[in-house]
Amino acid sequence: MRKEIIDISKADLTQIGKIYHLDRAANSGVGWESTISSDPPVEGNCKIGFVRSIQLPVSVEKMERHLTTEEAMIAASDDIVVALAPATGGKADDAPDIKDLICVLLKPGDVLVVKKGVWHSACYGYCRPAMYYFMFEDLNEPVIWTKIIDGPCEIRL
Question: Quick one: signal sequence residues (predicted)?
């Protein structure tokens, strides 16, 4: 099933998480501008990761989730797209459902913090291969990729 890509600022994130727009400079000096989040995006003993990804179109067959920690996804130099689906419970046989799935566009400076238990794909470059960071609390939770019910999800421009 093909899903429309929506701008993250227009998405209902009530069940999914929260967004920080760090591209809106709050401080500046000669040759630089910066913004710092108003609160810690994720709690605890955090680790940060870096991903190089392919560009759209992609066919997403599986998604992952973390039952014990939030995950922050941080767009680096290019626009990225991520598929998200609300949490479905904590049983091992739970799975994301394509009818509940949304695909959102993150621009450089956007930080999406995904709530505990929310299903998410990897992020993919919108118009070209892209890079992004992710941050999470390290609780040694196993990562299990699960097939999307009635999937795959086709994400295209």
Answer: none
